[in-house]
Every structure is written in C-alpha cells, then in structure tokens.
Amino acid sequence: MVLGSPLTLIEDDELYFRGVRATDLARTCTVEEAIEFLWTAGVSNGPPAPGVEPVVVARASQAGDLLGPSARSIDRMQIAVTIAGTHDPFRTELNPEGARTAGRQIVAIVVDALPDLGKPAPLTAPLAHRLWPKLTAQPATAADLDLIAAALVLCLDHDLATATLAARVAATARAHPYAAVASALAAFDAALHGSASIAAVQMLRDVLGPTRPERAVAEHVAGGSGVPGFGHVLYRRTDPRAAFLFDAMAAMPRYELAINAAQQVGAVIAPRTGRPANLDLALAVMAIGADMSADAGQVLFATARTAGWIAHIADEYSQAPLRLRPESHYTGPRPDGASHRAAEGAPWPRPN
Q1: What's the Cα-to-Cα distance from 93 to each of 107, 305, 314, 345, rounded to whole Å?
Q2: Where are the beta strands (DSSP E) in 188-296?
Q3: Cα separation of 156 and 191, whole Å?
Q4: Strand order in the sheet with 14-17
Q5: SS3 of 154-168
Q6: What pLDDT, in 10s, does the model give residues 77-123?
Q7: How far apart are CA 43 and CA 162, in angstroms?
Q8: C-alpha separations of 345 from 285, 336, 349 in Å
Q9: DSSP 8-state code for residue 139
Q10: What does the pLDDT average to over 182-204?
Q11: Distance of CA 252 to the CA centre of its chain
Q12: Which of 46, 150, 282, 316 is the most exposed place for a label (fewest CB within 10 A)?
C-alpha cells in the first residue's frame, strides 16, 4: 500500500518536511513555527494562543495519578488526550482545520498534564520550555532548551511509521482527532517503535557502570530485540537526526560521558554490522546527560510526533473516507462446502 503524501520525504539519508531539510528547520525555527509549517506549509495566519484551560490540565493530571505502579509517562499522555477530547465541544469537526485546531490542544495537553520534576514553566511558555521540567529536575541552560527544541523539530514526522499509519487508519474511518491520536499513541508504545530509546538508556547506563561495551551489546542481542540505538530501515549510512543532535551535544559538557559511552558501543557495532547510530541513541544520550527519567526520550519523541500525527490526520480528512481498507489473503482452512450448507439452511459444522 503506497499513499501519496505532501508532508515528508526521506531520500539519500536526508529527511525533508514539505521539501525543506528537517535539520535546517531545527536550526532556524522554533518548535511552534516548525509545527505550523508542517501543518500548513506556511500559509496559515498563525496559531491562536497555545495551551489548554488550566482546569482541563488539572483534571488530566489527576486522572494520571490514578494509574497503577507500572505506569509510565506515555500512559499519562494517552489519558490526557482522552480527557482533553471530552472537554472539546468541537472535536467532531472532521476537516483539516478542525484537526489542526484540536491538534493545538492535544500537543499542549500531552506535555502540560505530566508531573513536574523541576521548576515548572508557565502554560504560556514555548513548548520546549514546558517540556524540560517534565523530564528532569536539573535546571536548563539556554543551550539545553535549544537542544530539546531541535530534537522536537527533528522528531515531528517520519513518513508512514507504524503509529502514523494507525492515526491515518483511524482518521480514514472519520474518528475525531483525539481518538485518532489515541490510536497512534497506543501503537507508539511498542518495543520496536517509540520505546526503543528506553532500552538504549539502559544499555548506556550499563556501559557507564561496570559492564564492558561488548558485554552490554551481547546482553541486548541475547534478549532478541537487537542493539537499541543502531540501524534504521530508511537510512543506510547516517541518520541525519542523530548526527545533528550529537553535534549539538558535543559542545555541551554535561553530555560528554554519555557520548563517550555511545561511542564505545558504536566501536563494537561498526565492524560487525556497519549500522549507524540512530535517533534513539541520541535521545538516550540526552536523557543520561541531563539526568532525565529513563523514558524521557519516549516522552519527547511522542510529544513531537503527536504534532506530526495531526498533520497526517488533517491530510486524511481531505481524502475519501474508508480508503485505507486492505484486503487479506485468506490462509486458513477451507470451509469444505459450508457455504452450500448455509444456503440450504443446514447448520454450520462445530469446530473440534
């Protein structure tokens, strides 16, 4: 199934949003500007004031507090989206502009409903400023905020990744934007998709401890999920998102030890597979260097990708409904004349 899309191009180890290199947007735009560019190609008159009503944020935060001991931030984000949707009387406006209007609320709530680990930023502050204290208790420098903003821009979209396809499938059946994003978040919470940076954090922490890089790699390979943070089906030599973030962190002392650990693992991987470091490894380095929670990379990734899903949902609303309905090739047992018996009014055979 190949779908036309005006949003993202991945070609020759480069990532483009609407024909512009993602790394150029990360270098020159705020997160909010990059989101609006992805959503509207720059033809919008500009977004309304960001943020969600404080009462909705409070209720979403309270709902998150009811989760069990195994909950992670991604679970809070899913509940927050559902809560926000129930407070939006216009959530069933199933057109591109309606999706973008709801999207501004959704992007805000997935961040603002998370508990604070550090000094909170005002709800009217830029998205990167509000996200930082959700991830770490460490105070942020201007360079840290620039780094997290760039990471958000680079994570906005990546063509039809699994969760993005889930958002489009929901939207083609005309689920409202909150439901479509909830579908995407559910698909995103997967070991081989949005959760990969969590495993990369653990691997790098092992290397920073007593475990030799070779042993850390071997333990993850033995687990059956490969080495987290290396390789990508769409990049042969370089993941441009990872390269950009590593270059930025190289100039910041707090990330030095984590970068060194990543390089040690890379020295083990390179001669064996040649797989390049990917975005998950860069997010893991960021998490360790800034003393963030283990799932910080997943939270950042999901926050940014939520905005990307809105772009896809809006695009899908402009397409014919129910177009994403693949047909299966049946491989089970044949009914052995059951269709004839049904036509004659005979009972269906009972399975053993």
Answers
A1: 18, 22, 11, 46
A2: none
A3: 19
A4: 8-11, 14-17, 20-21
A5: HCCCCCCCHHHHHHH
A6: 999 999 999 999 999 999 999 999 999 999 999 999 999 999 999 99
A7: 29
A8: 66, 16, 12
A9: P
A10: 90
A11: 25
A12: 46
Specify the length of the chain in residues.
352
Distances from the Cα of 119 to the Cα of 22, 130, 266, angstroms: 30, 10, 35
The token pair at 296 is 């910080």
Give the model confidence (pLDDT) of 6-65 as tens digits: 999 999 999 999 999 999 999 999 999 999 999 998 765 555 444 689 999 999 999 999
Confidence band of 190 (pLDDT split at 50, 70, 90): confident
Amino acid symbol at 248: A
Cα–Cα dist 182/194, whole Å: 14
Smallest Cα–Cα separation from 297: which of 274, 275, 276, 278?
A: 278
Tokens for 217?
């790699």
Q: What whole-number distance in Å separates Cα of residue 197 and Cα of residue 294?
A: 8
The greatest distance separating any two alpha carbons of the chain, rounded to the nearest whole angstrom, comes to 79
One-letter amino acid at 170 equals A
Give the torsion through C-alpha atoms of 234, 240, 242, 248, to 10 deg. 180
Residue 276 per-residue DSSP state: P
